[in-house]
Every structure is written in C-alpha cells, then in structure tokens.
Amino acid sequence: MIASRCASCWTGWARVALVAGLLVTLAACSSGPVRRISEPDARLQQLIVAADGSWTAQVRIENYSSIPMRFDSFSLALETAGEAAGTLQAQPALTIGPESADVVDVQLTPAVAAKLAVADALAAGRSVSYSLKGSITTMPDAASKARNFDIERRSALSPAPGLPGVLR
C-alpha cells in the first residue's frame, strides 16, 4: 500500500513540475523577438556611365537591424579616384526588411575631374577607388522619431566584363 501511494505521489509531483516548466516556457516566449536597431550601411553596387557622360549610381542600402526599417532619405558625397564627383541624394521612402538590402538608382552629372578619372579607368580596364561620406535618415516604424546615421565607406569598382561603361 505504501509503495502504491509513493508511486502516485511521484506521478503528481511530475505533473506539477511539467506544468510549471510549460508555464515558464510560455512566459519566456510572450516577450516576442528582440527589437535591435543597428547602424545601416550604404555602398555603390554599380556605376553606369552614359554616352553623354552622366552617371547612374546604384546605391545599395543595407539594413542590419532585426526589424524592418524605412529609409526616408540619404545624402552621400561621392569621390572617385580621389576626385569629388558630386552628391548622391535621394528620398526613396523605402522599407527594407530585417537584415536585408535594396538598391536605389541615383542620377548624377559628375564633376569633370571625376568624370575623366572614371573614363580613364574604363578605357584602361582597371578598377577605380571610391568613397561615400554623408548620412541616411531612417525610421523604425510610424510611432518612432526619424534617426540619422553617419555613413563613411571606402571601396573600389571594377569594369564589368562584357558591359561597356559599367563598373561593379
């Protein structure tokens, strides 16, 4: 008789422990995912040189946050081969998902020295260095205030094989 009582006690305690464990697990899940807002980044994905000398810069915007972010505007000073080319400005009002990226096309009539440096690099089939410096304005959601993030990037673009006038 004592043995059967202990067995039923153990079963009762096991049930209580199991229910308590499930409640703790459910409580931990109720807080939802962590909302982490990280600094975004921008870089040139591609530069297309038109016959008239104007450029189409494809600016890749990277959202490293764990939530979708709306990218309202950016203003980035562009230098190519150490020469000031101009400012890439846009107001894309683009929402980019968590830890994702998207591309915005920006038209630019470059300064003469930068235009010559890029034309020379294309003619010689060699890469050209560039830098971006400026800011991006983002908004996590409609209830939040806009935030500005400073951007500073240095990299290089190389001629795209088979695509005349294109640097990637």
Automatic annotation (TrEMBL):
It comes from the Bacteria. SUPFAM superfamilies: LEA14-like. Transmembrane segments: none annotated. Residues 59-149 form the Late embryogenesis abundant protein LEA-2 subgroup domain. InterPro entries: LEA_2 (IPR004864). This is LEA type 2 family protein. It comes from Marilutibacter alkalisoli.
